[in-house]
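Archive transcription. Copying these from loose printouts into the bound notebook so they stop getting lost. Printout 1 of 2:
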Amino acid sequence: MPGRARAFLVIVAVMVVAGVVVGLVWTRLNPHVAMTMTDLGPFPNTELEAARQVSMDAWYAALGAVAGLLLGAVLATVYLRHGVLVVVALLVGAVLAAVVAFVTGSLVANGAVVLTWHPRATPGSPLTAPLGLHAYGVLFSWPIGALAPVIPLVWLGWSRDAE
């Protein structure tokens, strides 16, 4: 049992550390989005600025999926002998890594965790949009990427165990 617990903790810890790294990389890849305060709230200055705002989510999803896929394949291959424990550990680790990457990116880019943004500015004043997610569904890119290579590996391991 101590070997299984250690495998679980190692998998979760590696995923969380990867979440910190991805959060830092995410801040570097995103451009600043120029906005203007209107009577209805902040609005991107141009269509290009609106596209840059959407690219925040796209970069997060791409980085999370790639990191999850690579770590899922490597960790599942190393710990395949533990079977279902690997799937559960990768799922827990990927969910934690997704949240850690989001919070790390927000902290480093903005200086504070930004879950909602309500600037107090007069209409017509220029603003810079904080780094954040606009479509929270991209948080699922981590678990999907991490489990994509694992399910076939675990299934092949179970089929070999049955023989």
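Printout 2 of 2:
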Amino acid sequence: MSSLFRVEWTLVSKARLAVARPCGRCGQLRQFASTNKFRLNANGSRLDAWLIYACQSCGHRWNREVMKRKPVSAVPSDLLSALQANDRALAEAWAANLGGHPSGPSKPSDFELQMRLVPSRAQVDERAAVLCIRNPGRVPVRLDRVLSNGFGLPRRNIKRLVTNGELMASGGSRNTFRKALPPYLELMINTRDRALIDALFAGCSKPSG
């Protein structure tokens, strides 16, 4: 018996975070940059959320709407917690989305992966690992591209791992790997390939807790 490894990847968009718009204080077109802070307003059972921007010349604030009159019961608990905590990855990803909403453009985006090893006491019969991929800002990118980037492997190698059953999506099918990455996904890696396991851990920060 051996311990089950859990690795978490979080996508962060590398797109430009500034927006050009008229500044109410400067009286002319200025660059506004995200402060990575959210403003929330709960009106009964409805939630409004804005991402706060600041003029790069005078500091004047502009609230960019990211959620309007959303039923609180329809907001995933992890998303609500991220908004309340001013989660940096979520703020950066939403700022990079030109539409200002998590369901924005569907074209491919440049991104980086923040990786960390998560402690686990679960036991398995063979060398295995769970890869948790978080996409809090709904960066529009295919899963196989994310895996290719994270493992440093060509997509054809990712396809081979899927075909051989060494890489499996929890509750999904092989088509999942050709679709846009959802906000959260878990993958099971069943392999004795030491190089692949080492690639999974490459770049991970030390576990906390």
